[in-house]
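FAQ: What does the model actually see?

It sees only this:
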Amino acid sequence: MAGPFRLAFVGVDHPHGAGWRQLLHGMAEEIEIVALVTGPDGSIASLEERLAHLHRFERVDDLVAHADFDGALVCLPNRESVPALRTLVGANKHVLMEKPIAACAGALEWAVAEFRSRRLAFQCGYLWRYDDGANRLRAMVAEDRFTDLISIEMSWFTSDVQRRGAGHYLFDANVSGAGFFNWLGCHWLDLLMYVVPRPIVAVTARVGQNGPTPVDVEDGGTVVLELEGGPLVTFTGGYWLPRWTNEGGWSIRGSARWVHWRPFVSGTSGVIEVHGPQPQFLAMDETFTLAKDEVPGYGGSTSRRLVRDWLASAESGRPNPRNTIESAVNTLRLIDLVLESSRQGRRLECRVVPEESLP
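And it is asked to produce this:
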């Protein structure tokens, strides 16, 4: 590809919009924003002055008809994301979608055949698949360092509904379709299928309204997942903290070691605590700290790796091996099961098979 990849940025004022643009600004030799689509409400409050000269469109249809670009980064609410994706794929454009893309798996399943037949590069914002700490956990599992997996405990607690305001589209069922598990919990549900690529055979969930501010969608809850072969996964999280912050992590327990991963430790890119065997007098214990990420923008070096994978896929014509359209649909299927289990108030048997990914 001669020159930088020409990118259309769709959804200027998305919650992650400015962060994505800051990241891309540091990759100017590889990718250049050449056009903008404002988003459903037309707002451009976060638009940087360095991009103010670019042609702006109100609709993706107009972008496709009048702009010259190679692919698009789409940052839109669920209700607008899928129609935008259809238009871009129909125009044979490469697409990087903000997660989760849709409110349910059925809204996205059509895209699997389209991306494969057209040889278009797909990427989505499940950036934790590119995180160093997460990939160290994946390697531990792949190399059987736990021996027999017993349980995985995941948590993610974040700012309460009042931080954004109950009127935000994230809490509007007509726009987003669902709440915490669709917008934020999706990260851990997706990452689970990457770190521990075993089929999920049953889901039990209790999600709903737990915080003090009434909204249309679930603000959090607890999920129990049963993996093939016996390991149990629990995930508790929600919009429950009375400040702008994130708290959470993973604990993985096996017959030969147990590990705690704390990805949100201030001043670091995460801390991994490893507790191994004690064959005689000395036990194997280690605290492994990942250095603070100094790359500016949304997701830092993690998202930079994600973008570069997408650009490589566009150049080669081969599917991105880590975030695939199939894995994005799989994550939505799992979210659907979480919500349905809670609605029915019972355990649901299923078979969600993780998409194969590179080490």
